[in-house]
UniProtKB/TrEMBL annotation:
GO terms for biological process: regulation of DNA-templated transcription. It comes from Crenobacter intestini. Coiled coil: none annotated. Keywords: DNA-binding, Transcription, Transcription regulation. The keyword Transcription regulation applies. This is Crp/Fnr family transcriptional regulator. Residues 162-213 form the HTH crp-type domain. One of its GO terms (molecular function) is DNA binding. It holds the Pfam family cNMP_binding.
């Protein structure tokens, strides 16, 4: 697959340069329930997620009993900050599903960006989006209503699906949804069941949740 299909960072690059960059990449599939990196590991390579699902957790904790910073989806890029200063990843990343990635050494990417310094603006834009996403996550956690936290996550998933039509569909279990927003699986199940009965959400054959109409402001 052409890099620009899933990764807007490379949009506008000449096809030959995208192909040359991809030639430096190695393909790797992280199996479900495997460790991708530790928080202390140096970010000396960039990971482009093509397929699957990962999660970022608080350092030193095991998935399922730790703080979930967020999910890493097809089209996401891990380790961009390492292009500017080789530091640790800062979070532990775990594969929740079999996840196929392209892994690029920092040196290859730095050389490609230096060939056209304007490309560094795109890197800055990606990093700024990450900060914006993190601030949105903190804002969501401050929301006292469990329903409104779930509402925001469902709306974010819907936005992701519409903005990335070529990306594999995002499917989260009720436990994973609850872990993301601090609700029990049982509470998530109850809310989704009532939203489904009200015609607000549907579930496709893969288990993905689809918004059928705008969610109510209150539950």
């Amino acid at each position: 697959m052409d890099l620009s299909v899933l990764f807007p960072l490379f949009a506008g690059w000449p096809a030959a340069e995208r192909e040359a960059l991809r030639a430096h990449a190695s393909e790797h599939t992280f199996t479900a329930d495997s460790e991708v990196c530790t928080a202390e590991q140096a970010a000396d390579q960039v990971i482009l997620v093509e397929y699957g699902l990962m999660a970022a957790y608080a350092a030193g904790e095991r998935p399922g009993r730790s703080f979930n910073y967020g999910y890493i989806l097809p089209g996401d890029i891990i380790g961009l900050h390492g292009l500017l200063s080789v530091e640790a990843y800062g979070v532990a990343i775990h594969a929740l599903r079999d996840t196929r990635c392209l892994i690029l050494p920092n040196a290859a990417l730095v050389a490609a960006f230096d060939a056209d310094p304007a490309r560094w603006r795109a890197v800055a834009g990606q990093l700024a989006q990450s900060v914006h996403h993190l601030l949105g996550f903190v804002s969501m956690l401050a929301e006292p209503s469990g329903y409104r936290r779930l509402k925001r996550v469902l709306e974010n998933i819907d936005t992701y699906t519409r903005q990335r039509p070529f990306a594999p569909r995002m499917v989260l279990t009720q436990r994973e949804l609850g872990e993301r927003i601090g609700l029990s699986r049982e509470m998530v199940n109850r809310i989704l069941r009532e939203l489904k009965a009200g015609g607000y959400v549907g579930v496709d054959e893969e288990g993905g949740i689809r918004l059928l109409r705008p969610l109510p402001a209150r539950f």
